Amino acid sequence: WQDRKVSLIVTEPHDLIAELKPAHHPRLYGSAGCETWSVRFSPDGSSFAWSMGYGIQELKLCLLSLREHLGAETSCVLLCINSSAEVVCSEEKSLNCRQTVWALAFGPCLSTRVDASHQNGHYHELLLAIGLNNGVIQVWAVSTGNLRFTLTGHQAPVRDLVFTPNGSLTLVSASRDKTLRIWDLAKKGASPHVLRGPNYWVFRCSISPDSSVITSICNHDSKVYLWSLRSYTFMRHLTYDHERTMASCDFSQDGALLAIASYHSTTGWWLDLWDPYTADLLTRVEYDGQLSCSFLISALRIWDMEQDKLVADTDHNRASGVCCAFHPHGGVIATGCRDGHVKFWRVPHLVPSLKHLCRIALRFSISTYQVEALPLPKKILEYLTYRDTLFFT
């Protein structure tokens, strides 16, 4: 989920600004086993990682400049899995993972709300966590290409990884062994906290901006799981009254919304916005075949929450995505494609309204229940709790 504004529909040919091609092309377009299932930008936007399912076990580090597209005097480092890009790489390192890569995460995610004097300087080293097919998690130092940690315990492929956004070295992993594990990389050799409960593969996980809640979904379970990251216990379900195949989950920038993408063979794709505090379903987007959130089928779509409308829609034949990620500084979206490619799309900037910035600042620190207890007019309360959000299909 990315709470970012866009000023116009991205349909011109120049909206595609860069592309990475895999080393091996699929024998048949769309055939299983060639998808790029994970794309990640580092927290500061200086690095980018991507994975694909060819069974390739080597990561290569190369340098690619996106400065003209980001409008910044910085470059973007690309971590490619045995891939070749349509650019000249001035630097390259190889990371031999020895297993098929399924999940990626950069960390730590340094928080602007934590006093820098209370953050250990060692934590500022950029790390890349890699979830492998055999259940092992490898943690590499990006600057040196050295393997820092090897985490064992999962009994099946690790499908998702995420660092807490509070600047710590806490890593959450989701696996096909039906568990989530919480690792403290600052404590070498410490056993992880294991969260059990789902009866299906844990497919995706996400952490709230205040690092208090983990949300997770299973691929064939019509429920959303909410876990306390403070007590390591189950909190509640967000439940659908009909069967759904869950695809992705993510919190809004202030933690007041939880976006869930799901699919059903007869009703198509849905994007639901939930209140994670009250378990209320706030709004739903239904459409037949395309979805933009963190999971894509054949298009990239961007929604403007304040204006309640679709503001960007890429050409369906060119997008062909299964995952996406915003650059932290804005301006660029990366999509992982079904044929193993990665594509970078230009996203125009638009300054959000002052009242929306105030809402984000307030909701980061105050729950829905606390807002509803305030002596404010009804319309203001509806705005602060996102009850006035109405998407259309």
UniProtKB/TrEMBL annotation:
WD repeat locations: 151-185, 325-347
The UniProt record lists the keyword Magnesium: no
Pfam families the UniProt entry points to: SOCS_box, WD40
Highest taxon of the lineage: Eukaryota
Pathway given in the UniProt record: Protein modification; protein ubiquitination
Keyword Repeat listed: yes
Domain SOCS box: 351-390
PROSITE patterns linked: SOCS, WD_REPEATS_1, WD_REPEATS_2, WD_REPEATS_REGION
Protein keywords: Repeat, Ubl conjugation pathway, WD repeat
GO biological process terms on file: intracellular signal transduction; protein polyubiquitination
PANTHER family: WD REPEAT AND SOCS BOX-CONTAINING PROTEIN 2, WD40 REPEAT PROTEIN
The protein's name: WD repeat and SOCS box-containing protein 2-like
Source lineage: Eukaryota, Metazoa, Chordata, Craniata, Vertebrata
